[in-house]
Amino acid sequence: MNKQTITEELTDSILPFWIKLKDEQYGGLYGTVAFDLAINREGDKGGIATARHLWAFSSAYRVLGNPVYLTMATHLFRFLKEQCIDKAHRGLYWMLDYKGVCVDDRKHIYAQAFAIYGLSEYYRVTKDEEAIQLALDLYDLIETKGFDEKNQAYKEAFNRTWEEVPNEMLSENGVTADITMNTHIHILEAYTNLYKAYPFAELRARLLHVLSLHLTKMYQEDHFLGVFFNKDWERLLDLQSFGHDIEASWLIDEALKVLDIEADEYHAMVIAIAENILGVAVEADGSLVNERENGRIDRTRIWWVQAEAVVGFYNAYEKTGNVAFKEAAEGAWSYIIHTVKDKRERGEWYWAIDPDGVPVERDLVEPWKVSYHNTRCCLELIERMS
């Protein structure tokens, strides 16, 4: 694992795959590519997916400077602002059809966070005032509609007119959660990037609050983060999500760096999470297994979990100098290149590899499988190795 090979994977494989999906007629990117690599030009286009693509190409341009990436980012920005944002009631739609017509007008705080993430990154490279004003409007929505003063947590799901509804979109495993770790880590991620782009005192205070929730409410004695909670911050399941934990470890650390905070309790949490995942979730082949529920481990190797393992373990290595973390990052990257990477012509990364080492026959592109995790993995390593 070195800067050159990582750069080549990004510029020769990952980004070209997504560039070929540019929809010149209706905007955004084509929403579905089947396992056999057939492009469905009539697949739905997610609001979250569009925001993630916007972040990926904006960030790729910021780091690598290729004007093709800026052209893609601008294309995605136009689709997001013109089709994905509700002009009557504000906020990012959940899902659109291939023509950019809304087919699911629910609003989710998780989705608004990703729109902030993409818009703030686009602003970092363009200084487009419209982009930052959209990001700030979404920030205002999260804080005014999405924050629960009683439990000091962020809410989850709403209908189009911002009436709270059950959290169907980000609940699973048989529960409907009032509070999720997933939404909170991505608010943290979004606010961190917004602070990089456009810092102001209130945002700093809110970012500090989100950090405190990770430490005081989600972080458990066993060094895992709780996944699903009720309104009283009580855990709903005995569930550990290994990929989310290692991702959260470096996102928490990134927020601390951006805020220029030296806090022993947070740094201890970051390292303890990484050590814990290293001990319980890494297989002999370098891969990271998915999750554990009620003591039973799901050994599926999901593409984004491997990507986050590379960054999370490398971040822990930078913080500690512990070569075990460096070896874990290198092992995860090796597993990606040898097993997760789709070596067929026009391929990218498989969605997942089953416990027997066989690619799962699932769409290679759909609203949850986009350019964000693996692009970010590469860009983080490129910047950290510079």
Characterise this structure.
This protein is mostly helical and 386 residues long. The chain has one domain: Glycosyltransferase, CATH 1.50.10.10. Helix content is 54%, strand content 10%. The protein has helices spanning 3-19, 47-64, 67-84, 109-126, 129-145, 181-197, 201-218, 242-259, 264-280, 303-320, 323-340, 372-384, and strands at residues 32-33, 39-40, 45-46, 95-96, 102-104, 107-108, 147-148, 153-154, 157-158, 164-165, 179-180, 228-229, 239-241, 291-293, 296-298, 301-302, 352-353. It has a 3-stranded antiparallel beta sheet. A 3-stranded antiparallel beta sheet has the order 6-9-10. Strand 14 (291-293) and strand 15 (296-298) form a beta hairpin. The model has no long low-confidence stretch (mean pLDDT 97). One of its GO terms (biological process) is carbohydrate metabolic process. This is Cellobiose 2-epimerase. It catalyses: D-cellobiose = beta-D-glucosyl-(1->4)-D-mannopyranose. Its EC number is 5.1.3.11. Keywords: Isomerase.
Task: Please outline the helices and strands.
Blueprint: H1 3-19, E1 32-33, E2 39-40, E3 45-46, H2 47-64, H3 67-84, E4 95-96, E5 102-104, E6 107-108, H4 109-126, H5 129-145, E7 147-148, E8 153-154, E9 157-158, E10 164-165, E11 179-180, H6 181-197, H7 201-218, E12 228-229, E13 239-241, H8 242-259, H9 264-280, E14 291-293, E15 296-298, E16 301-302, H10 303-320, H11 323-340, E17 352-353, H12 372-384
Antiparallel strand pairs: 1-2, 3-4, 4-5, 6-9, 7-8, 9-10, 11-12, 13-14, 14-15, 16-17
